[in-house]
């Protein structure tokens, strides 16, 4: 099978961190003969937009990105070419696959051998250290692309490749049992609304959703949250969260907030033995947990960074079973700048997916 591959394409380019995003129509497409062994060329159907893309655009992380940069790491599309001399590829030309944050890793180091390939020192990051998915064609790596279950649409699958796998993995390693309580601050947002569904439908947890506004309240309760707290209306958030979770506080808190206070509060409201699942990636904020109470309450502070290849497959499989659905708005690539503005203002409900066709 071979595909007709154009020489140029539409792409959204970050030329420098303070220049506006440049949408180009004539960005070159890497041609099949230019692919190295292990690389593949993917024609994208769509791509999700993640908060990380906004950090890459602004350059406000301690980790430098490449420049000029094509951002994006929630892409879904079809493999249209595989580099010559690629050996034992787990995917074939014509397969529909996803591109996630972790584009590639060495597969040989201790972290890779232990399934912690996200933390591989040689990791390549989509839309950060290698060009990502805000373009019609993207080069990725056969070992790390994620096969998409046939009954999941590309639009629906996109956000599970980062937001979905991130919350799925954090909950998977949360040391909780079915019937336990989990609190999800930001439950109406991109990560949060997927976390509500994985928590209830995949892990049997009871959810306290924390966010603000009628629209987010309605969404969280529809998706299975048992309790709702509007943080703007709460006079004492720590007490309200404890009360909502049976008085002793939740067994786990999945926190993706950018502010350190959300993490510190969690140590206060978690019940003894509880887990603070740290999944946000603000550039500079610190966790200032009180050591005394962290020890006396035996609090687990667990950093969880996206997911490995297996986590991604599991997260997508659960979505394909209909147990997690993404609340998304489909927009054209040209809307990227306004999507970033919405993210900065906190007005995006659910997730934005850009159509690339
Ligand atoms: Zn992401
Ligand atoms: Zn490695």
TrEMBL record:
Domain Enoyl reductase (ER): residue ranges: 16-354
Pfam families listed in its UniProt record: ADH_N, ADH_zinc_N
Molecular function GO terms recorded: alcohol dehydrogenase (NAD+) activity; metal ion binding
InterPro entries in alphabetical order: ADH-like_C (IPR013149), ADH-like_N (IPR013154), ER (IPR020843), GroES-like_sf (IPR011032), NAD(P)-bd_dom_sf (IPR036291)
Cofactor list: Zn(2+)
Entry keyword set: Metal-binding, NAD, Oxidoreductase, Zinc
Main enzyme class: oxidoreductase
Keyword tRNA-binding tagged: no
EC number: 1.1.1.1
Cellular compartments per GO CC: cytoplasm
Origin species: Multifurca ochricompacta
Family: Belongs to the zinc-containing alcohol dehydrogenase family.
Superkingdom, natural source: Eukaryota
Name of this protein: alcohol dehydrogenase
